[in-house]
Amino acid sequence: MSSSSATLPNIIGRRRFSTLQTAQSCARSEDAEMAERISEFLRQKYPDGTAKIVGKETGIPWKTVKNWLDKRAAPKAPHFMKLVNAYGLPFLDAVDPEGLPFLKDVRTAIERRDLTVRFEEVIATAQKLKGGDLDGS
Is the pLDDT of residue 132 over 90? Predict the structure, then answer.
């Protein structure tokens, strides 16, 4: 009997995980962390009626939001993007405090969008004032 076959009985009975099972386990762990951070952010923002308020603001079914708050699930990509659109950078910072590289582009796009909106507001106000000064002089 070779030494490799002699060690075979030691492995039998051990549970072996495939690469896929290991990846799924890691993903569930990351989902749990994400669900925890999202739950904490939403509960701080809305201590009462959290699920229903978030549902109304985002268009996400409140029962889905309740599952996140109870940490039974984490948002899938479409819902995550709705949360980002609704709550912006404060949401991303709460969910991703370390600043994951792939979210840098998302943060930049949100900042650009917010600055564009603010710029348009300033221009509109300036045009009103300019028009008022011309009419009132």
Answer: no
